[in-house]
Amino acid sequence: MALITISDTGNVRTLTIDRPGEHNAIGPDLLAELALALRATRADNNIGALILTGAGAMFSAGGDVQALLDGLSTRDVATEGAALEAAVMTVDLLRTMPIPTLAAVNGPAAGGGLALALACDLRIAADSAKFAYAYGAIGLAGDLGVNWLLVRALGQARARTIAFGGAFGSQQALAIGLVESVVPDTALAAEALGRARKLAHIPLSAATAIKANLDFAADQDFAAAAAHERDSFQTLRGSAAHRSAVEAFMQRTARRSRGWQ
Question: 64-80: string of b/e by CB count within 10 Å (b at 16+)?
């Protein structure tokens, strides 16, 4: 049985973490399937945006705590390190997808589930969504790159508020900028699809460059970031996608103008 289900609506692909009986817990098998799905999506030129969500009432509870406990007696540090490295590579695949990515957080996102949500470009939350760092409660300090992702998304002060706090409800997450909007549970799927359809209109070359520019700017001074932008601007200016996008924009503007007259 698949742990990640794939469905396409036009040029939007939805990946669903499909282990509802185990609260969509994350393990090596699920991450391996997710990596395969992400690579297939990256290779599919027909897909312009990606939604990640969870089946049932949870986005993901994070790691399987019982498996962590059971594995203590047979723990092999080298094997464990390799598994952690593979997990990080999967999260990085999601983080560096060339197309816009959107987490539709349908319920609690804890631990590694929080990391997966943070690895997406944008997040929309259902009313019932909750967000929790959760690692401290089990005597750990994070995995899957969650600390880097938290600091990048929220800055040091708010990242520490999340890391040392309890569960944050959807409205609290909205107030600190962890999510871009909160919608009723029943409206989440439609809202996420509508948002993703708009994102999918951005040409692939432009979406990839936007993400690269933002990543670069996070660690650079203004002059370096502006120079990086300039180089991507001039590269994109010579592309057929830019010309097509400008022409389509002008046509839409003309239609709106005629409608207002």
Answer: beeeeeeeeeeeeeeee
Token pair of 114 as six digits? 């929080």
Q: pLDDT for 93-144, tens place per residue? A: 999 999 999 999 999 999 999 999 999 999 999 999 999 999 998 898 999 9
Q: Which helix (H) or strand (E) holds 222?
A: helix 222-237
Beta bridge partners of 188: none
Closest CA to 54 of 95, 102, 91, 15: 15
Kind of pairing, strands 12-17 and 4-9? Answer: antiparallel
Residue from 122, 119, 93 nearest 199 by CA:
122
> Chain centroid to CA 128: how far?
19
DSSP-assigned letters across all residues of 86-144: HHHHHHHHHHT-SS-EEEEE-S-EETHHHHHHHHSSEEEEETT-EEE--TGGGT----T
Tell me the C-alpha distance between 161 and 244, whole Å.
45
Q: Tokens in use for 229? A: 């932008």
pTM for this entry: 0.92
pLDDT in tens, 188-215: 999 999 999 999 999 999 999 999 999 9
